[in-house]
Amino acid sequence: MKSALSENISAMNDSNAAESDHIIVQYMIGECFYEGSGTEKDILKTIDWLN
Predict the structure, then answer these.
(1) Which Gene3D superfamilies match (predicted)?
(2) How many CB atoms within 10 Å of residue 31?
(3) Percent helix, strand and coil across the chain, each to the nearest 5
(4) Sign of the C-alpha dihedral computed for residues 46, 19, 11 and 6 taken in this order
């Protein structure tokens, strides 16, 4: 079962909000990739979103 946070991150992953310097959203997406929350763990995507 996906958490509400995971569902929101999945929806925002493709949105302009995440790519337009919204630091909190970028961090949340990176954290999901790091923890594998709602997606598979992916260290390269983690680094990309947190960098």
Answers:
(1) Tetratricopeptide repeat domain
(2) 15
(3) 70, 0, 30
(4) positive
Is pTM beyond 0.70 here? Answer: no
Which residue, 11, 39, 9, 42, is CA-closest to 26?
9
Contacts of 46 (CB under 8 A, 6+ apart): 30, 31, 33, 34
Short-list 21, 46, 22, CA closest to 36: 46
Q: What is the pLDDT of residues 18-43, one digit of tens each?
A: 667 788 888 988 999 999 988 899 99
Answer for the pair 49, 33: CB distance below 8 angstroms, yes or no.
yes
> How much is the pLDDT for 22?
81
Question: Distance (Å, rounded) from C-alpha 40 to C-alpha 33?
Answer: 7
